[in-house]
Design goal:
This protein is α/β, with parallel strands linked by helices and 405 residues long. It has two domains: 130 residues, Aspartate Aminotransferase, domain 1; 243 residues, 3-Layer(aba) Sandwich (Aspartate Aminotransferase, domain 2). The protein contains 14 helices and 14 strands. The strands form three sheets. A seven-stranded mixed β-sheet has the order 2-10-9-8-5-3-4, sandwiched between helices. A five-stranded mixed β-sheet has the order 1-13-14-12-11, with helices on both faces. A hairpin with an 8-residue loop joins strand 13 and strand 14. It is globular, with a radius of gyration of 22 Å. Bound molecules: pyridoxal-5'-phosphate. Pyridoxal-5'-phosphate binds next to helix 4.
């Protein structure tokens, strides 16, 4: 029969939309796609300066800071590097927790820069322990530790660190170390307060809660971090805050900026403001609560062990021993056109991750939970059926607060 009637095996068309339920990159709303679909303009001209100068205030609001924010044309990893090279010197001590794949990668980066990293191992099921930070800092009488570096939302495990408690622990030890926080998968999803929580360098990225394509990253910096940058001896050029500052003052960048992404960022900030940032957090809280209720009803475990540390932007689910989480994800992708996050490093093949961050609402999550449940059955992964329905009931009752983490 004519392939017009039977379809072609080469044909890539699949009806309906692709469910991108990854914990980043996330779904990009049409408004942002449209905003980025503009011709390049002169990045040393007045129109560009007007665009750029208009962005800094909005980005400050997202980080909840009155201080400086630097924007780099890079993925989030670049902003990790920027935080290190602007404030530290080779041989400086830093305290870090190996609590997930991104924490681990940041530790590896710190080592490559010649930092003396005190690594606290964890079981990758909990966030950094504030009490341990207090003890470590109290023991460091000579103040060798120059920075405590933590990931706010460990995307690989669905564990959210208690930054406010970590700050309080640092204060209780009366130690001058800087606090660096990776907000790459929490910014624009969960409450985050750079100034109030006394964070010295917050690291952000564009492709998660900000709903943008990958390619923009941020450093929000405190005055203390700026002071540290004046004496820090790490070589720096591309990431140099001072070079950025001099150019940013008039709305420019030291090199070719990611023009289209900056137009997208303007739209993203408008959208967050239209919904209201606190409502954005409430929506993520609701989505996280619903996802966890479904997982519990399936009789499965989240990677996160501490109810106080559940992430509201990503839920990482352990599959029972002897079952292959990647084979399950393959079925879900092929059969239902849905991409779920996989397990990284020590969790490879052992977990799947449901992203519910950024441009995501109740029905998108409901569909995703339905697809997960059907996939669990198809893959022969032992579970109790009905988790997706439990999630739906919670949506209907709107009673997610009583189930709050
Ligand atoms: N930190 C966290 C928490 C992340 O989730 C990621 C990426 O997913 C990174 C850092 C690395 O960012 P990028 O891949 O944008 O360089």
């Amino acid at each position: 029969m004519d392939t017009f009637y039977t379809g072609t095996s080469e044909g890539s068309h699949r009806a309906g939309w692709h469910f991108l339920q990854l914990p980043g990159p996330t779904n990009i709303p049409q408004r942002i796609l449209n905003a980025t679909a503009v011709p390049a303009i002169d990045h040393r001209g007045e129109d560009f300066a007007e665009l750029a100068l208009g962005l800094f205030d909005g980005v400050r609001k997202v980080f909840k800071t009155r201080g400086e924010v630097f924007m780099f044309p890079s993925s989030g990893t670049g902003a990790w590097e920027a935080a290190i090279v602007n404030t530290l010197s080779p041989g400086d001590g830093v305290l870090m927790f190996d609590s997930g794949q991104f924490s681990y990668l940041w530790i590896e980066m710190a080592k490559r820069f010649g930092l003396n990293v005190d690594v606290v191992d964890t079981n990758w099921r909990c966030g950094p322990d504030p009490e341990m930070i207090a003890t470590k800092l109290a023991d460091d009488k000579s103040h060798d530790i120059k920075a405590v570096m933590v990931v706010h939302n460990e995307t690989s495990t669905g564990v959210t660190a208690r930054i406010e408690e970590i700050r309080a622990a640092m204060n209780s030890a009366n130690h001058p170390a800087l606090l660096f926080v990776d907000t790459i998968s929490s910014l624009g999803c969960m409450d985050y307060r750079h100034d109030e929580w006394g964070v010295d360098v917050s690291i952000g990225g564009s492709q998660k809660g900000l709903m943008l394509p990958p390619g923009l990253s941020f450093n929000a910096v405190s005055e203390k971090a700026v002071e540290a940058s004046k004496t820090a001896k790490m070589p720096r050029c591309y990431w140099d805050w001072q070079w950025m500052r001099e150019n940013n003052a008039t709305g420019f960048f030291p090199y070719t900026p990611a023009i289209q992404l900056l137009y997208g960022l303007r739209e993203s900030i408008s959208m967050l403001g239209e919904e209201g940032l606190e409502n954005v957090f409430k929506r993520h809280h609701r989505l996280g609560t619903i996802a966890r209720a479904a997982v519990e009803a399936w009789g499965l475990d989240t990677v996160c062990e501490n109810p106080k540390e559940h992430s509201n932007s990503v839920t990482a689910v352990l599959v029972p021993a002897g079952h292959d989480a990647d084979a399950f994800r393959k079925i879900v992708l092929e059969k239902f056109n849905m991409a779920l996050g996989g397990g990284l490093n020590r969790y490879a093949g052992k977990i799947f991750r449901i992203g519910h961050m950024g441009h995501c609402n109740d029905l998108m999550l409901a569909s995703s939970l339905t697809g997960v449940e059907a996939g669990l059955s198809d893959a022969g992964i032992p579970h109790i059926s009905g988790g997706a329905r439990v999630g739906q009931s919670l949506m209907a009752s709107g009673n997610t607060d009583s189930k709050a983490a």
